[in-house]
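Record minuted for completeness.

…
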Amino acid sequence: MTDSSSSSPASPRRTALDATHRALGATMTDFAGWDMPLRYASERDEHLAVRGRAGLFDLSHMGEITLTGPQAADALDYALVGNIGKVAVGRARYTMICDAEGGILDDLIVYRLGGQEFMVVANASNAQVVLDALTERAAGFDVSVRDDRDAYALLAVQGPKAAEILTSLTDADLAGLKYYAGLPGTVAGVSALIARTGYTGEDGFELFVGPSDAERLWQALTEAGAGLGLVPAGLSCRDTLRLEAGMPLYGHELTKATTPFDAGLGRVVKFEKAGDFVGRAALAAAAEKAESAPPRKLVGLVAKGRRVPRAGFSVVASDGSVIGEVTSGAPSPTLGKPIAMAYVDAAHAEPGTAGVSVDIRGSHEPYEVVALPFYKRER
């Protein structure tokens, strides 16, 4: 790190697996203040490996925050939009933290590790914001908020072969581990929280371990998956995988200027829970507006040509009027054509709406409006 008195920016942080990534020839990139692997070889090949076999990811940049104490559940019910007190021990919940105006500060996964212990996992770019907000909102509750970002390395095995690979390294009951559940166990001799969660649209597992155990576990997973087509996978293919699966990305589909209802994720807001929570009144108004006259809706767009849309590009109607904006766009290795997510005017949001184009550097390229997700795995 540079000295605090220097005007030079701080160097990116490195995960416990940094040397491993560099030995594998990874292309590294600065992501949310971390030096992370973007790709190892072909991002398309990595993407297709996860869809057809398995990929191994380093996600150690994610932010873990632990809440413990008799009122941990009450504090989280006040701080977050979800009904966290109803989450059973060993289960996880996708939720959000909003500001008083209903704007999204981050989307989160909360794991209930015990009756009075929860782990909140935030996006790397928002981890400090979430930590600060949880600390402030927990005041007055009998709960301790702990920054555990340095306590964990996070590895993910994703894809149809993930369970087979992991089963060879653990005696944990993976068959009985439901989606959005987690249990403590040992993987390749390493103590881990084994969670059946992911951000790829495939079956898979996320393994929370001590940083000193990360390299040992990475090598064990690599060896166990060698005969099953496992490949190391970087952030680039993780982005195209989540896009195909219709999963939102903070800073793109989710921002402080959007509410969960704007994003079509109003189901995560639990008005039925007892007591007040931050943003309740504003979110109630947003829910009513979304039901009666939503200004824009999040939709999928599939290209009829080959040009790729990018975030910020305008979506236009047949008369040339701007009816929306692309939030994420990329070539889809699975579909074989460019795709995008975009917020568009409600009048143009129905799947099959004709005459919709994306303005790509002055050229109006035709796109088809489709329902999300673009891809759904067979179960």
Observations:
- The chain has three domains: 13-60+152-244, 61-147+259-293, 295-379.
- The first helix runs from residue 18 to 23.
- The helical segments are 18-23, 43-52, 72-79, 127-137, 162-167, 214-225, 235-244, 280-292.
- Residues 244 and 340 are 9 Å apart (CA to CA).
